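Retro notes, item 3 of 5
We never archived the inputs for the zinc ion complex last cycle. Fixing that now. Sequence and ligand:
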Amino acid sequence: MLPSDNIQCPFCWETIEIVYEPDEGTDEFVCDCTVCCHPINFTVVDDGMGGTYLVAQSDDF
Ligand SMILES: [Zn+2]
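Structure as it came back at the time:
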């Protein structure tokens, strides 16, 4: 089962659930917000306890 994380969209501030697939060597990916459809950059962060969580980054330049 793929991990998922609830994050707050940096563009519309809605909380959305993102299902992601941890992949060695790929800790960044882009996924469109399901509410405002704005692409969000995500970074997969190791929590140090065998799990991962997501950090959303607004790349609004
Ligand atoms: Zn959004």
